[in-house]
Amino acid sequence: MLGLVVALFVALDAGYRATAGVVLPRAEDSMGILRIIPEFLGGMALYWLGLRWNPAPRLAILLAIATSVLFFGLMQAGVDDRLIVAAAGPFLLGLALLAKSGVRSWLDHPRLLFGARHRSPFIWCMSRC
To answer: Quick one: 67 exposed, middle or buried, by C-beta within 10 A (0-12, 13-18, 19+)?
Structure first.
């Protein structure tokens, strides 16, 4: 499925660049929701991969660190948007596998979790009403 996603993205990008002259991630105005199809299918494939794969905590930590460094490094380097979009999927998969593996950190402190759940007055009111 990931191969199909890559092929679809390359085909859509090549067609859009030939007609409009810009890369597919910059096609918000003219293609609208159609430009998201490859990314959505890629997200589904990574989701299925994440369901089947249960890495050991150390591997999950290494994967999360490696994909984070790659993703944020590409963003800071100012590379082509298509590479940043491609790195976003493994970044999110790495974070999801980190949570799935049971790794605990200072971010799991109950006060931080409470603050994240009740950060807006609307959410606080809806949980109390």
So the answer is: buried
